[in-house]
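Problem 12. The chain below contains 71 residues. Write out its predicted structure in token notation.
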Amino acid sequence: SGLPPLRFVAGELEILRDVVVAAHASAEAAGTDSELWVAEGAVHCWYHSPQFPGPADAVERMAAMIRELLP
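Solution.
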């Protein structure tokens, strides 16, 4: 596909979830290394809000997704 590896993150309840899931599916269908994480019960950018549990864990998981791609 010529695309670099892609990592998608979405909240289960966010309005953009279906768009993110479709982008991931398209990337995979094109042969791109793509990973999708849909966080259960989460809204858009939940990891920025202290009202939702686990923001530190979410940021660490996203950082790990990036670290695995670095040389």
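Discussion. Strands lie at 6-11, 34-39. Students who got a different answer should revisit the alignment rule from Section 12.3.
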